[in-house]
Amino acid sequence: MGFKCYFTLNDINYIKDTFSNRIQYSAISVQDSYKNNYRYSLSTYFRDYSQEYGSITKLVGFEGYLLVIFEHGIGIAVINERILAGQGDGEPVFINTKNVLPEELTIISDTIGTQWGESVVKSEAGYVYGVDTIAKKIWRVKSQQLEIISDFKVNKFLVDNITLGERENHPYIALKNVKTHYNNNKKDIMFTFYDDVYKEEEKVWNLCYNEYLDEFVTFYSWVPSYSANIDTSFFSFNRETSKALSLLEKSNYYNLNNYGVLLEYPVIDDTDEEITYPKLHYRVKHRTYYTIKEG
What we know:
38% strand, 2 helices, 295 residues
């Protein structure tokens, strides 16, 4: 006898499963509740926003709002917005809406944003800092106001030393990234940049901005890959150590996304008495590879 086959997928060319402008949220969390509502989210708990300003690269909780940073814009979302309905006994009367997130964002910049989510950092002074590698500017936001702090100060330096383009927006640890670090003890904002993937000469710098002095103060010769503030101390990872690990992965022959001179590591087998040594290969972008022989 025959049988029927049921296909759950539609007969179409493709299904989009990457939503770069979607913000998802959870149920309302109740303090001291046994149930963790932060882990409870229905399939309808989301809001999609326009691609007019590019993809969303960073979300920051900010002054009771949600700061939404796009590739080419910055917006503010009011969470659980209430509508003023009138006055009652001298007190304002509000009506709660069913929307957790607004349908439209309040845009505070339609030209400045960031392509690198790790370039955004929040300080204890209430500022949110970021770097726009396309406009080649350093900005900060406070009280829903955008300020460009690099203009007339380090603008020429940024124009000459930011080499990443529009399509180069994927970080590679210690090899290609735009990352901002915050030293809570000294109130230093360190804007770091490094690009050492395809260029012959490495482009790397660490520009420091001090919140006490409210100006750019120096360049640091060291560049951390990651950092954290623990109590009153600033801890960071050495970029050179992270770079060595990234280069090791980048030269892995078994990763089909890598190309150039690659290293094939030997497979260790206890049953084999003969020692097999690593082999060098050369692979071009379309994944054709050649074995480099000894001699």
